[in-house]
């Protein structure tokens, strides 16, 4: 099962759990799709868009469960990033993991995101 990842503030995710679905962060709503990363892209996404932020969660999502609403589109430097056009159904979520900041000031990713 291929996974895609969403980095999300814990408070925003708690709101999604209460609502039964995730409609995206403000940046997602402004762009018209929910931004995801592959496992290889997630650390760069964290460094670029979430540097220094704590109380984050890494949401692992079953890409196949999202069907045709998930599209891989060019972004940074032409790399293909997964974008979800529509809400994220919580039934597609496989794991929710804290994303702490390590002593070097970068986020510490769980082992399951590494090949």
Automatic annotation (TrEMBL):
SUPFAM superfamilies: ADP-ribosylation. It holds the Pfam family DUF952. InterPro entries: DUF952. It comes from the Bacteria. This is Dihydroorotate dehydrogenase. It comes from Methylobacterium variabile. The lineage of its organism: Bacteria, Pseudomonadati, Pseudomonadota, Alphaproteobacteria, Hyphomicrobiales.
């Amino acid at each position: 099962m291929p996974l895609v990842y969403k980095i999300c503030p814990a408070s925003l995710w708690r709101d999604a759990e209460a609502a039964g679905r995730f409609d995206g962060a403000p940046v997602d709503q402004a762009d018209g799709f929910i931004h995801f990363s592959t496992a290889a892209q997630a650390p760069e996404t964290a460094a670029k868009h979430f540097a220094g932020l704590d109380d984050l969660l890494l949401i692992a999502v079953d890409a196949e469960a999202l069907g045709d609403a998930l599209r891989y589109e060019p972004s940074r430097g032409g790399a293909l990033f997964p974008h979800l056009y529509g809400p994220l159904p919580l039934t597609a979520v496989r794991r929710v993991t804290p994303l702490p900041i390590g002593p070097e000031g970068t986020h510490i990713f769980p082992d399951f995101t590494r090949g």
